[in-house]
Amino acid sequence: MRFVSRREFLAASAAAAMIGPAGSAEPKKLVLIAGRPSHGPGAHEFNAGVQLLAKCLKDFPGLDASVNLNGWPKRQSVFDGAAAILLYMDGGDAHPAIQGDHRSLLGGLMQKGVGLMCAHYGVEVPKDKGGREFQDWIGGYYEHAWSVNPIWRPEFKEFPKHPIANGLQPFSAEDEWYFNMRFRPELKGVTPILTAVPLDKVRNGPYVYPHGPYKHIQDAKGRPEHMMWAVERPDGGRGVGFTGGHFHTNWKNDHFRKAVLNALVWTCKLDVPQDGVESTVSDEEIKQNLDPKPERK
Ligand SMILES: [Zn+2]
């Protein structure tokens, strides 16, 4: 028998306490991050949105959702022990994930197999600043002037055999559903989850910004487009992109919400129930925690 120092003994005890006996693992920590207010009432309600998602996951077994509001967390310790992270926030050049040392922080977490889901504007990063990473981490991203952001109502009729699609029934929802993401070449490793065919008039624009239309979008008429997708990375982590989430009221849509809740559970490497994550959002709850109206100058 080898002599074990007191320090080693304590370290081993601490590790055992973290893992616990078989079958009683610590809950998986899901870090929900809401971006700062940016739009008028009812749109980009990231703060209210993540609080609704956390409420819907409150009783999900084995999951512990931590809510972080109004932008990138001030304390890096928020990420300690994370199983997965949701970034529901404005993106583009100002994407919080690419400011300062955040990209390398996230990269380190991804290497450890932490899950990542990006929603709505949170899927957009500049091609040369985050584009390659987002392809690695979640399979694709919104590329300016390649991807488009019209407001339209896709009909989601069929779903793949994938845990995120558990319990989903055909549905539609009007939203600013971005499409034509810059995916990995040949969609390598990417499983489309929400797919629909935009009508030609959607391809003809206007898009929210810039108004378009773009020839490469019009030329692809009739092609199915993916508004939600999932990847399993070589580092063991899971990634999801979801392009809806502009209009807050869509969280009232049971299937829209179920797709996102299923995805959050899946990115934490927890089992998604056969019928998907069940939840309700009342008329009262949808009005809660909305951002204050911007002051008029
Ligand atoms: Zn939007």
Task: Describe the structure in your own words.
This protein has 7 helices and 11 strands. The protein is an alpha/beta fold and 297 residues long. The protein has a 7-stranded mixed beta sheet with strand order 2-1-3-4-11-10-9, with helices on one face. Strands 5-8 form a two-stranded antiparallel sheet. It has a two-stranded antiparallel sheet with strand order 6-7. The N and C termini lie far apart (75 Å). The chain is globular and about 50 Å long. Strand 3, helix 3 and strand 4 form a beta-alpha-beta unit. The longest helix is centred in the N-terminal third of the chain and has 14 residues. The structure holds zinc ion. Zinc ion binds next to loops.
How would you summarize the topology of this molecule?
Elements: H1 6-19, E1 28-34, H2 46-57, E2 63-68, E3 82-88, H3 102-111, E4 115-119, H4 127-138, E5 140-141, E6 155-156, E7 171-172, E8 182-183, E9 190-196, H5 200-203, H6 215-218, E10 225-232, E11 238-242, H7 254-267
Parallel strand pairs: 1-2, 1-3, 3-4, 4-11
Antiparallel strand pairs: 5-8, 6-7, 9-10, 10-11
Bound molecules: zinc ion.
